[in-house]
Amino acid sequence: EHVQARLRVFYEEELDMQLVLFDAVLDHVLRIDRVFRQNQGHMLFIGMPGAGKTTLTRFVAWMNGMSVFQVKVHKNYDAKAFDEDLKSVLRRAGTEGEKIVFIMDEGNVVDTAFLERMNTLLANGEVPGLFEGDEYASLMNQCKEGAQRQNLVLEGNDELYRWFSLQVMNNLHVVFTMNPSEGGLHERASTSPALFNRCVLNWFGDWTDSAVYEVGRELTLMMDLEKPGYFPPSDFTPLVDMLPSTVDHRSAVVNACLYVHQSSRAAAKRVLKRE
Q: What is the pLDDT of residues 36-47, one digit of tens each?
């Protein structure tokens, strides 16, 4: 009930659509929350588009008072622009102590340098050479101010940079989202090992028929679907065990919606096989 109430506030404040909580969603929420409560808690989500990977990540981050950063790719977005975004995130996490969830979707990886940077960050807690010259000097000043706020007296740039790296490890959570690979995960694991060594893998499979039925039931509660004296046709086929023993009109409508969903999913798989 607590999570349901928080979810309602979240979608009213942050989204323009209703979200439905069911058992499978709650499992993902608890798993994400457990990882985010750990230092260097990073995750790799694998699942089809629309499965809720990004939305659930944002929800758990919101529940824990964390900021969310997502790369906004545009026509001229390149490795240099990505480095600027990465530097901004690391400054916020490392010098200001801000808890941040960095969501990185594979669709936004328009340059292999993006993954190389993130792989290094996950493996070492830093990206060597990212801050140089005047930027490095400015970062050291920010680190000195941040350390003083923690009543720490640090001497020398090496000590300050170690403190900065530790702060990043404590405050930054990286979440990668990707679609299932037809060729498996071996190639990705070989090119970006830290994605798999340093991230908790969370697989978003197809939602069960019971879950889809629950969503349909919840989203139709405010609709006038009651029809007193309704009796289902003789060839009516219940698609889930959750239907009441005496099927009312609302349950029959939701059952029909589930049938449409099943048929659409089966048709999409047939088309995908042809391609």
A: 999 889 999 988
